[in-house]
Amino acid sequence: MRPLRSTRKVGSSAGGSMTSSMVRLNIPLDPAKTGREAASLENGLRRMIVGQDEAIEQIVNIYQMHLTGMNAPGRPIGNFLFLGPTGSGKTRIVEATAEALLRNPRSVIKIDCAEFQHSHEIAKLIGSPPGYLGHRETHPLLSQEVLNQHHTETMKLSFVLFDEIEKASDALWNLLLGILDKATLTLGDNRKVDFSRALIFMTSNLGASEMSNLMSPKLGFGAGAARDRMNSGVVEAGMHEKLARSGAEAARRKFTPEFVNRLDKIVTFQPLGSDQLRKILDIELNMVQQRIFNSSSDRAFVFTLSDQSKDFLLEKGTDIKYGARHLKRAIERLLVQPMSNLIATEQVRGGDWIRVDFDGENKCLLFAKEAEGLPVQEMVRLVDTSVTMPAMAAANSASAEAAKIQTARSSKRS
Predict the structure, then answer these.
(1) Are 325 and 282 a contacting pair, CB within 8 Å?
(2) What is residue 407's predicted lDDT score, i.e. its pLDDT?
(3) At what angle do helices 53-67 and 90-102 cross, to 10 degrees?
(4) CB 10, CB 21: distance < 8 Å
(5) CATH label, 275-407, candidates 3.30.530.20, 2.60.40.150, 1.10.8.60, 2.40.50.140
(6) Ramachandran region of residue 323, left (φ > 0), alpha (ψ -120 to 50) or beta?
(7) Is 136 helix (H, G, I), strand (E, B) or coil?
(8) pLDDT at 348
């Protein structure tokens, strides 16, 4: 279809009329597309976070607005309230966002709101005012220096997490009103802190009991079947919408309207089903492998699990009520602790390849050494692409390979 050409009069003046030719293209646009940097963030989050598509979408949208300069001036980049059952990934997604953008999951400024249940404890955040005991010795947790400590030349973002916000006193909620609305905090010594380059996250378990009753009702004809589905990791259709409504209603009952009105988005995290937990299992196994590589370059080894051993870990670690944390505990108890015994007794050394199988009779994992003395390049081929070898280990491996080649050449000459 050819563009429609037309001529319009765009203005007039005392000297006469001024006309200009304008080409009307009528090209359809797609506002659902994201830019390259926002797409990179989305891909990074989807590699680390499973089953929480709405939360990922909201974070990416806010970050895209920040990149284009379309976010509201004089406010934080984004204000989020994450609700949902325990172990669904509320804290993890904040760390994953910081890891994707700043390459450091520890760059999140985490405020444990259970430590601020009394109004006088707010002094730990803003410092004591002049004249009070300890005014000089108190270092506020939310100073501008703390907020900017992880800024780089290319990425000037801060991540502030108020964990379990419902446990804090009303004084902390009132303190947050100014931060969420005007991106400004006044410390005890009257210094101003600018939050305009900060992403504010709040997590809460509000409505968790109501969500648990929805997933596993204690009364009714379908109560038994619902409990069986929950124990097997199956989430029934329509449950996501019910949980989202339950979480939003619990937040509105707990917080004041002026507090809720300053939030950009309230996201209810969904319980993790068996399919999501299987993907999380692979992510957690990769993290254990990364932990082995980072612990010591000369003791790095690889391990692989059979499908039967993964099914066993999923069976022991699946509980919708406790989410991914229950799976992490099963991995630590059944896999990591036995491997630490193998390392301590020198049954496993650097360069070994350990195969983990499942013993159906004794209902336990079996460990066997498949190979030993593997160079770094061979170990890299055995692990997932998301696992990176330490640079020191790679350098040591390269020097070891060079030494082997030199020894072989010397033996040939002799």
Answers:
(1) no
(2) 43
(3) 40
(4) no
(5) 1.10.8.60
(6) left
(7) coil
(8) 92
Cβ–Cβ < 8 Å for 38, 64: yes
Residue 372 and residue 330: Cα distance in Å, rounded? 27
Q: Where are the domains of the chain?
A: 36-271, 275-407
Q: Among 79, 129, 118, 87, which residue's Cα sits nearest to residue 264? A: 79
The model's pTM is: 0.78
Question: Do you know the residue count of the chain?
Answer: 414
Residue 382 Cα to chain centre, angstroms: 26
Unique residue bearing structure tokens 């780089």: 152
3-state secondary structure 253-288: HHCCHHHHCCCCEEEECCCCCHHHHHHHHHHHHHHH
Q: Name residue 138's beta-bridge partners.
A: none
Here the tokens at position 392 are 């020191």
For Cα atoms 358, 323, 328, give the angle at the middle one, nearest 5 degrees.
45
The pLDDT assigned to 88 comes to: 83
Q: End-to-end distance of the chain based on CA atoms, in angstroms?
A: 80
Cβ–Cβ under 8 Å, residues 307 and 404: no
Distance of CA 173 to the CA centre of its chain: 24
**Amino acid identity, residue 216?**
S
Q: What is the C-alpha separation between 160 and 182, in angstroms, rounded?
A: 16
- Given a contact cutoff of 8 angstroms between Cβ atoms, the answer to whether 302 and 329 are in contact is no
CA angle 207, 317, 229 (to 5 degrees): 60
Closest to 86 in 3D by CA, of 275, 277, 219, 270: 270
d(CA 169, CA 253): 16
CB 251 within 8 A of CB 207: yes
| pLDDT value, residue 135 | 61
Instruction: List Cβ neighbours of 350 (8 Å cut-off, separation of 6 or more).
Output: 296, 298, 299, 300, 301
Alpha-carbon gap, residue 292 to 301, rounded angstroms = 7
Cα gap 21→384, rounded to integer Å: 58
Instruction: Return averaged pLDDT per consecutive 10 residues of the chain, 414 residues in all.
Output: 49 50 85 89 92 93 93 93 87 94 92 90 82 68 92 92 92 92 90 94 85 65 55 61 85 91 92 84 91 82 93 85 82 94 92 92 92 86 65 43 44 44
Architecture per CATH, domain 36-271, reads as: 3-Layer(aba) Sandwich (3.40)
